[in-house]
Sequence to fold (129 residues):
Amino acid sequence: MRLAAIAGMALCALMPGRMALAEIDTSDIDWYLMQDMEHALKDLEPVLVVGNFDSARSSAEVLRGGLQYVHDYFVAKGNVEDAVKIAAEGQVTIARVLAALDSKNQEAAITAARDTARNCKACHQIYKP
Fold:
């Protein structure tokens, strides 16, 4: 039991940035945009699966704009390099969705949509809304 407690404290000591980053004040974020992004993300894969590329493009565009906002937001906050990196990675995954839609590659679009969902989840595990 004592060993587990010591190991836990050692782990926390090795991750001071992660622990502090979760405490960042995000009360000034655009919550309406966050809700729009959540709805778009939930809609994206199902509409791709049924082949509704117009609806998928609309959702992807909401996510692209939202991820740009999130990136800029965290850059302005400062000292949150992981959030900036996650947002930049999200921009790459949503660009892959849009490129796959342009080439009418449904499987690639679905894969990129799933990657985008994982990206959003990674950020929200650290930065709780």
